[in-house]
Amino acid sequence: MSTFRKRTRFSGRIAELNSMDSAFRDVSGGRQHCILLAAEAGGGKSRLVEEFTKRLSGRALILKGGC
Ligand SMILES: Nc1ncnc2c1ncn2[C@@H]1O[C@H](COP(=O)(O)OP(=O)(O)O)[C@@H](O)[C@H]1O
Ligand SMILES: [Mg+2]
């Protein structure tokens, strides 16, 4: 099923993306990381993950799950 959602232009989250980039560099070097994202509903968790995984395009295998 496809749904239409109007996307807002992504803004901010520089610190979070830098932190995730840094974790990805570490992981690429063989270290292990677990990133825990927590915020209220609508706080931007899914969008942040989406923007981050876009940045990894071609550099990582992205597996997504849901429940
Ligand atoms: N940094 C951001 N810049 C622009 N829009 C954002 C940003 N973070 C979230 N949004 C928008 O706000 C809405 C709610 O974000 P969402 O990621 O779905 O929240 P959550 O997953 O935490 O419930 C979505 O429409 C999303 O695109
Ligand atoms: Mg979400």
Description of the molecule:
Residues 9-67 form the Orc1-like AAA ATPase domain. The protein is mainly alpha-helical and 67 residues long. The protein has a domain at 14-22 and 31-55. The chain has 2 helices and no strands. The longest helix is centred in the N-terminal third of the chain and has 15 residues, at 14-28. It is globular. The relative contact order is 0.14. The model has no long low-confidence stretch (mean pLDDT 91). The chain binds adenosine-5'-diphosphate and magnesium ion. Adenosine-5'-diphosphate binds at residues 7-8, 10-13, 39, 41-47.
Please describe the structure with a list of short key phrases separated by commas or semicolons:
67 residues, mainly alpha, 2 helices, globular, binds adenosine-5'-diphosphate, binds magnesium ion, AAA family ATPase, AAA_16
